[in-house]
Amino acid sequence: DEDMVYIKNLFCKALINKDKYMEIIVRFSKNWDVDRFAFMDHVIMTAAVAELINCPTIPVKVTMDEFIEISKYYSTLGSSTFINGVLDKVVDELKKDGTIVKEGRGLVG
User: Fold this and answer.
1) Residue 76 burial by CB count (10 A; 0-12/13-18/19+): exposed, middle or buried?
2) Are 50 and 12 in contact (CB under 8 A)?
3) DSSP-based three-state secondary structure for 65
4) Number of H helices and number of E strands within the chain?
5) Where are the beta strands (DSSP E) in 1-109?
6) Are 87 and 93 in contact (CB under 8 A)?
7) Which of 29, 54, 71, 105 could be bridged to 79 by S-S, CB 3.0 to 4.6 A?
8) H or E element at residue 22
9) DSSP secondary-structure letter at 36?
10) pTM across the whole model
11) How many Å apart are CA 25 and CA 99, to the nearest integer?
């Protein structure tokens, strides 16, 4: 039940803010081959950004690792490398501007 609530919440956040999150993603993927930007890469990165921004108790590293792992199963062969590179840049920017705020033991700082 807890997992289903989390998934529904994440899905809603990603869907409602899709355009805003895709703007962020596209800004940091300009130097990548367009051929490597599969539809599933969009979906995975949008969900990852939604979790990074809206789930203050989930560590950034956990989000990164989980969504990169998801990409290995559900997207193209090179997607995990692509997603890792883009999300690294997104995380750096969102931390700098205060959009990613984590709370809880071991998450602050």
Assistant:
1) middle
2) no
3) helix
4) 5, 0
5) none
6) no
7) 71
8) helix 18-27
9) G
10) 0.89
11) 14
What is the helix (H) or strand (E) element at residue 19, kind and residue range? helix 18-27
Can you tell me the distance from the alpha carbon of 88 to that of 9, in angstroms, rounded to the nearest whole number?
24
Tell me the one-letter amino acid at 65. D
pLDDT in tens, the chain (109 residues): 899 999 999 999 999 999 999 999 988 887 766 555 788 999 999 999 999 999 999 999 999 999 999 999 999 888 899 999 999 999 999 999 999 988 765 554 4
Task: Report d(CA 62, CA 36) in Å as an integer.
Answer: 24
Token output for 34: 């367009």
Backbone Cα Rg of the chain: 13
- Centroid of chain to Cα 43: 9
| Structure-token match 């883009």, residue found | 86
Q: Which two structure tokens, joined as six digits, stand for 102?
A: 């984590």
Distance CA 91, CA 94 (A): 5
Sign of the CA dihedral 2, 41, 38, 97? positive
